[in-house]
Design brief:
The protein is mainly α. The chain is built from six helices and no strands. Helix 4 (79-91) runs antiparallel to helix 5 and helix 4 (79-91) runs parallel beside helix 6. The protein starts with a helix and ends in an 11-residue tail after the last helix.
Amino acid sequence: MFGIRTVLRSAAVARTGIARIATKPSSVLAQRRMYSEQPEETYEQFTNRYVKFFENVDDQFELQRGLNNCFAYDLVPDVAICEAALRAARRIDDFSTAVRVFEALQIKVDKPSQYEDYLQALKPVKDELGLLTKEELGFK
């Protein structure tokens, strides 16, 4: 059904196709190297970026998207970021998201004493905005 020439021709085409694929990654690697030359963002720049973001939040979707992005990093957000997020939550009248900011902090910190430090730092804002933690609401 298939002649020897057909089989040899398809094998030769397959080999040249593989050779073409093998040469492409070098150009992709060069592009990757150029991409990684961007300077890293400092902690202060990170804090300023998210404080400004939360100061301009107008709806619940943007607030929750910003919180998800902020807490996805491998660090605990600064008190200034949490304060801006809490004020944004109350500005758009989203009490449940404000309570979840405290819950996210509790999960994100390494030690319970660090969570207590955050609660102490955020106590004036919490009292001013009338916010409660989930423990104060009676949940575990």
